[in-house]
C-alpha cells in the first residue's frame, strides 16, 4: 500500500485561456482576469494499492506525529481492510519527520504492519505521486468556490480512480525497480 499527502488549491486549473491584445488594450476589461494571491487550499492524505484507492483524509493542520498516527488509525487501517481484507501487506510512506518518528515505528510494530524501506528524495518512484497528478489533471476544469466544494470535487474525482489505473502505476514502478 502506497501513501502520501498532496495539496490542492481552489485556483488549481483556473488559469483560463491566454489573452492576446493589441497595443493600448492593456486595461480593457476583456483583457483582464482576476486572480487570488493566496488561494484557499486543502491538504489530503490518501493511500492506494493495485486493488484500488482507500478513503481520503483531509488534514486541518501541519502533520505532527500524533496527527499522523491518528490518520494511520482512522484511515490507513480501514483502507488496508478494504483493499486487502485479512491478507498481509507492506506499507509505504515518505520519510518526513512524522512518519519516520520512533513512536510511529513503534505504532507499526504494535499493529504488526511491515513498512517498506523507502529511499530518501524519491517522490517520482511513489506511484501515488503520479496518481495525485492524475486526480489534479481530471480536476483541471473544476471551479470550486470554497474549501468545501474543493473537498467534494477531490472526493468525486478520487472515487473515479479504477483499480486498473492503480495497477498500471504500480507496474511502472516495479519495472523501474527491476531495471535497477
From TrEMBL:
Domain of life per record: Eukaryota
PANTHER family the record matches: TRANSPOSABLE ELEMENT TC1 TRANSPOSASE (PTHR23022:SF134), TRANSPOSABLE ELEMENT-RELATED (PTHR23022)
Residues of the Tc1-like transposase DDE domain: 2-151
Name of the featured protein: Tc1-like transposase DDE domain-containing protein
Gene3D superfamilies in the cross-refs: Ribonuclease H-like superfamily/Ribonuclease H
Annotated GO MF terms: nucleic acid binding
Entry-linked Pfam families: DDE_3 (PF13358)
Amino acid at each position: 500500500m502506497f501513501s502520501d499527502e498532496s495539496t490542492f488549491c481552489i485556483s488549481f486549473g483556473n488559469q483560463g485561456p491566454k489573452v492576446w491584445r493589441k497595443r493600448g488594450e492593456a486595461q480593457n476589461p476583456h483583457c483582464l482576469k482576476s486572480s487570488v494571491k493566496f488561494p484557499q487550499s486543502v491538504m489530503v492524505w490518501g493511500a492506494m494499492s493495485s486493488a484500488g484507492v482507500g478513503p481520503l483524509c483531509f488534514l486541518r493542520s501541519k502533520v505532527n506525529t500524533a496527527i499522523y498516527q491518528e490518520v494511520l488509525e482512522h484511515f490507513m487501517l480501514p483502507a488496508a481492510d478494504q483493499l486487502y481484507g485479512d491478507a498481509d501487506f507492506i506499507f509505504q510512506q515518505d520519510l518526513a519527520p512524522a512518519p519516520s518518528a520512533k513512536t510511529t515505528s513503534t505504532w507499526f510494530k504494535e499493529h504488526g504492519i511491515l513498512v517498506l524501506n523507502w529511499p530518501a528524495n524519491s517522490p517520482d518512484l511513489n506511484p501515488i505521486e503520479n496518481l495525485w497528478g492524475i486526480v489534479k489533471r481530471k480536476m483541471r476544469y473544476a471551479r470550486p468556490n470554497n474549501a468545501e466544494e474543493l473537498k467534494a470535487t477531490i472526493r468525486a474525482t478520487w472515487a473515479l480512480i479504477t483499480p486498473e489505473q492503480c495497477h498500471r502505476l504500480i507496474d511502472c514502478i516495479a519495472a523501474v525497480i527491476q531495471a535497477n
